[in-house]
């Protein structure tokens, strides 16, 4: 009888920590977020990084080039190009497998990038 209760406690703890059962079964991987394009192009990004601690909000306000890496399960970023000229490319890589890319060259473009 104690085993089902223990399993329930473990599952509830994972849910409260913001983890899904898939996250609990997989170790975190290195996730790399790279902003490239026309040097000096300004942008902002509101990101949520999925880590072992749960969802972690992260705001970026800078110019190209920029690189950020962390250990986690995934991310989602809403990116806004702040300058009216130049190209902004964003690439997110997880481990040696998943890749998500987007590019904008319009004036004050907006993009969303997600990696599971």
Explain the overall architecture.
- The longest helix is centred in the first third of the chain and has 15 residues, at 2-16.
- The chain has one domain (27-115).
- The protein contains 2 helices and 8 strands; from the N terminus they run ααββββββββ.
- By secondary structure, it is α+β, with helices and mostly antiparallel strands.
* Count of β-strands: 8
Number of helices: 2
Query: Unreliable segments (pLDDT under 50, ≥5 consecutive)?
Result: 1-22
Order of helices and strands: HHEEEEEEEE
Multimerization state: single chain
Strand content: over 45%
How many domains in all? 1
Mind describing the biggest β-sheet? 4 strands, antiparallel
**Per the principal axes of the C-alpha atoms, what is the gross shape?**
elongated
* Radius of gyration from CA coordinates: 17 Å
Secondary structure topology:
Layout: H1 2-16, H2 21-25, E1 29-37, E2 42-51, E3 54-63, E4 66-72, E5 74-81, E6 88-94, E7 98-104, E8 110-115
Antiparallel strand pairs: 1-4, 1-6, 2-3, 2-5, 5-8, 6-7
